[in-house]
Amino acid sequence: MRERKVRKREGLGERIRALRGSRSRDCFAGELGIHKNTLARYEAGQRMPDAALLQRLCRIAQVAPEWLLDGEAKAAPDFVAPPLVGSDRAEPVLQLNREWLNAQRLDADALRVHVMADGSMEPAVAAGDVLLVELGSPLPPRDGALVLVRVDGEPVVRRARQAGVGRVCLVRDHAQSEGGTLVALHELQPGGSHELVGRVCWHLGRARGV
User: Fold this and answer.
1) Which residues share a beta bridge with 134?
2) What's the gap between Cα 187 and its chain centre?
3) pLDDT digits (tens), the chain, 210 positions
4) For the whole model, what pTM was predicted?
5) Among the four 43, 64, 72, 157, which has the fewest Cβ within 10 Å?
């Protein structure tokens, strides 16, 4: 668990607010599967989260339940397990050394894991490959970057291509795929038709030809 700038005597609401960090209330509420107004009431101390949400908070933010409930700090673990995008699965898919993350200048709290479900991004990414996604990517995405977006609530990987002022084309790499999806930048914001989850920063897959 990272050191938090919240004193023990402060309440659960302040600790939840600290976990949100620089993320918007819309974004963090979406990760938790609740409405932003509900999150606001939790942060203000007007409501108490149920046990399931407290567990989800600990899993997503990689904090100890003792700290979340009463402010008791625990030593930071050597490894962190970023949560899987779009899943409540408790078992970690990937565990990463905290020192390695620091060396790569990656914030453990802003990382998510996505497992590729299809071959739409072959040959760059194959079905079953594990992707590490960094939240909070700036808009527009860098030309040619792999990004994770939500389409109708489902996470999908696409390659971002610049398409003029205020627009981005999201394309599949697969040779048999035609064209791409042209979206305005506002459609990549929280609640948009192609909400940007983040950029793919690391890729773990089987070496080709092995």
Assistant:
1) 111, 199
2) 18
3) 344 444 444 688 988 988 888 788 888 888 888 999 999 999 998 988 988 888 888 877 777 788 888 777 654 567 888 888 866 565 677 888 888 888 888 888 889 999 998 999 999 999 999 999 998 778 889 999 999 999 988 899 999 999 888 999 999 998 777 778 999 999 998 888 999 999 999 999 877 655
4) 0.63
5) 72
Check: CB of residue 148 under 8 Å from CB of residue 198.
Answer: yes
User: Which residues lie closer than 8 Å to 40 by C-beta, 6 or more apart?
Assistant: 25
Both 72 and 100 in a single domain?
no
Query: CATH number, domain at 180?
Result: 2.10.109.10
Residue 135: which of 49, 58, 54, 60 has the closest Cα? 60
Domain that holds residue 21: 12-76
From residue 18, alpha-carbon distances to 6, 13, 54, 135 in Å are 7, 9, 14, 17
C-alpha to C-alpha distance for 162 and 170, rounded to whole angstroms: 9
